[in-house]
Every structure is written in structure tokens, then in C-alpha cells.
């Protein structure tokens, strides 16, 4: 099986999406300078939720009335928004923006493992197993030997970010199992509704009444990661999938870290250890093997026959 042909327009939009999500890590880091991480997550999901529902209403998309579907939305909001957003925002307080984005790129590793455990048609083939093993090695190298030898708050932050990627992987399988046939825009609005219902009381309980930001940079960060990095990014993501297919859309994952690393260096004066770059290179290699670009699916079958 060959990869779906990707048009020039699809490549441009994939590049744009990678840039948008890459810059979101910077916006979150800036927002964390003034706001607690749970309050920041609440801002992200609530405003994005309102924008997506406005889109659904303007487009007059059908809204499901089944309680089962709304229960699925609530679980999806927890798995795809509340847990990963909170874990990654907390972790970003202690590790660099670029490093967070590198670990985020490992989402596909756990996605493959979770899907293989749940769906019969997603079995772990030798090619996928090799890709997962190489990608795991990349993550381990990016974490660095020091983190394994001496466990500290930085080590815990890295594990929190990785925990967020596992939650993303669970969310992808949950969506396939419970939300098939729904409009992706309605699904996104529904899950953000579920996320808002969960995170608002938690943020108020943990952080107190919502704080009014005083720094212009905080307002800019909230507007960026809620409006552009979440609401508009979801709409663009579905366009990319429609044009290029979900397999090709995984390439976006590899475009995010370079953007986040460059912005972190230019704006926040962050510097990553050489092991982070080496780890990302190995991780990217593993993802390309998973995707079938370096070792084609048909070629692998012939070699293993």
C-alpha cells in the first residue's frame, strides 16, 4: 500500500498547522508566568468551546441529542483536553518549551500500542513494532541519562508530559470506538464542552476565583492558544485529514517541535541539551517507520514472508 498523494495545498496547510501548534507551546509558557496551570487550561477549553459552538450554529450542523453521545463527549474531553492539557502545562513550568513539544511528538507511539490492544485490525505488525521501539529509544535519549540517575522535579515534569501523550492516545481510540459517524466539528465542540464542565470547578477549587490577568502578554497568550491554537487549529486539522488522510496528517507531529524549539530559543532564550535534538531525530525516524515511509508496508511484508 502506498501513501496517499498529498497536494501542494495540503502540504501548505499541514505546515501552517504545525506552526500553529508549535507556537502554542510558547503561548502556554508565557501564560504560566502569571496564571496557575489549571486556570490556564480552563481559559483554553472554555473560549475554544464557545468559538466552536458558534461555528456549529452558523453552519447549522446537526447536534446529537443522545445522552450516550454526550457521555462519550465528556469522556473525550477528559482524555483529549483536561488530562493532557493539565499535565503538559504543569510540566512546562519546569522544562523547556521545545522539550515539551518533543515529548508531545511521541503521542503516535502510544496511539499505536493502545489501538493494537483494543482493535483487531490495528495489530502490532513487525514494522510497527520496530517503529515503536526506535521511537521509544528517541524519547529515552531526549529525557537524558541524568533524569534516570537522579529523579527530581524536572524528571517528574518530563514524565507528566509523557503522561499527557498517553492520554491523547487513549482519546484517539475512544473517539474511534464511540464517536464514529459524527461531524468532527460537532465532536470537537462536544468534547470541549465536556472538558469545560470538568475543568472549571476543579480550577476554581484549586486556584480560587478566576484571576483577571494584568499583563498584556497573558491576554495575548490566552487569545492565541484558545482561539488559534485550539479552536481554529481543530478546524484546520480536520481539513488536513480530509485532504491528505490521517496517515499523512501524522507528519504534522514532526513539524511542531522545530517551531517550538526555535521560538523558545528566540523569545525565551531557552537552550536544549544535545541529547534532546538527538532524541528527537531518533523519535522522528521511529515515527516515519511507523508511517511506512522509510520501510514500505508491501516491502516489509515481502521481507518477512
What does this structure look like?
This protein is mainly alpha-helical. The protein has one domain. Helix content is 80%, strand content 0%. The protein is built from 13 helices and no strands. Helix 1 packs across helix 11. It is globular and about 45 Å long. Mean pLDDT is 87; it is low at 299-305.
Number of strands: 0
Form type: globular
Determine the number of helices (DSSP H or I, runs of at least 4 residues): 13
**What is the H-and-E element order?**
HHHHHHHHHHHHH
Oligomer: single chain
The fraction of residues assigned to DSSP E strands is under 5%
**Main sheet, how many strands, which sense, barrel?**
none
Number of domains: 1
- The stretches of 5 or more residues where confidence is low (pLDDT under 50) are 299-305
Structural key phrases:
305 residues; mainly alpha; 13 helices; 0% strand; disordered C terminus
Architecture blueprint of SSEs:
Layout: H1 8-31, H2 37-59, H3 67-92, H4 97-104, H5 107-118, H6 126-143, H7 145-149, H8 153-178, H9 184-207, H10 216-249, H11 251-268, H12 274-291, H13 297-304
Write a brief caption for the model.
The protein is mainly alpha-helical.
Amino acid at each position: 500500500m502506498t501513501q496517499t498523494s498529498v497536494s501542494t495545498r495540503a502540504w501548505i496547510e499541514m505546515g501552517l498547522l504545525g506552526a500553529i501548534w508549535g507556537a502554542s507551546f510558547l503561548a502556554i509558557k508565557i501564560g504560566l508566568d502569571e496564571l496557575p496551570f489549571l486556570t490556564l487550561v480552563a481559559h483554553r477549553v472554555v473560549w475554544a468551546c464557545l468559538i466552536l459552538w458558534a461555528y456549529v450554529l452558523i453552519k447549522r450542523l446537526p447536534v446529537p441529542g443522545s445522552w450516550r453521545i454526550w457521555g462519550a463527549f465528556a469522556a473525550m474531553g477528559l482524555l483529549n483536553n483536561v488530562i493532557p492539557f493539565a499535565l503538559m502545562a504543569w510540566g512546562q513550568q519546569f522544562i523547556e518549551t521545545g522539550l515539551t513539544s518533543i515529548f508531545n511528538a511521541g503521542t503516535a507511539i502510544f496511539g499505536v500500542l493502545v489501538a493494537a490492544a483494543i482493535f483487531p485490525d490495528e495489530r502490532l505488525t513487525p514494522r510497527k513494532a520496530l517503529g515503536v521501539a526506535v521511537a521509544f529509544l528517541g524519547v529515552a535519549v531526549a529525557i537524558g541519562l541524568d533524569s534516570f540517575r537522579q529523579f527530581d522535579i524536572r524528571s517528574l515534569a518530563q514524565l507528566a508530559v509523557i503522561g499527557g501523550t498517553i492520554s491523547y492516545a487513549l482519546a484517539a481510540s475512544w473517539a474511534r470506538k464511540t464517536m464514529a459517524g459524527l461531524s468532527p466539528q460537532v465532536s470537537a465542540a462536544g468534547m470541549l464542552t465536556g472538558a469545560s464542565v470538568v475543568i472549571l470547578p476543579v480550577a476554581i477549587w484549586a486556584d480560587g476565583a478566576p484571576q483577571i490577568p494584568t499583563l498584556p502578554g497573558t491576554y495575548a497568550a490566552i487569545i492565541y492558544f484558545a482561539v488559534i491554537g485550539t479552536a481554529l487549529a481543530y478546524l484546520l486539522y480536520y481539513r488536513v485529514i480530509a485532504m491528505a488522510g490521517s496517515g499523512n496528517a501524522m507528519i504534522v507531529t514532526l513539524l511542531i517541535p522545530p517551531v517550538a524549539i526555535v521560538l523558545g530559543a528566540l523569545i525565551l532564550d531557552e537552550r536544549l541539551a544535545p541529547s534532546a535534538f538527538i532524541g528527537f531525530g531518533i523519535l522522528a525516524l521511529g515515527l516515519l517507520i511507523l508511517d511506512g515511509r522509510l520501510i514500505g508496508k508491501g516491502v516489509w511484508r515481502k521481507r518477512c514472508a
